Amino acid sequence: MKVLFQARPDFMKNPAGDTVQMVSTGQELKKLGIEVHLSADPNIDLSPYDVVHIFNITRIKESYMFFLNAQKQQKKIVLSPIYWPPNAYLKREGSSSNALAVWKHMQPMRARLLSESTLLLPNSHLEMDVLHQDFLKIAPYNVVPNGFPDSFIGTTPQLFREQFPDTPKEFVLCAARISPRKNQHWLANICQELGLSLVLLGPVNDQKYFESVKSFSNVIYLGTLQGELLASAYCAAKVHALPSWFETPGLSSIEAGACGTVVISTDQGSPQEYFQDMALYVHPLDDLSLRTALEQALNASPLPLMHHLQKHYPWSKVAEITLEAYSKILD
Question: pTM surpassing 0.85?
Answer without folding.
Answer: yes
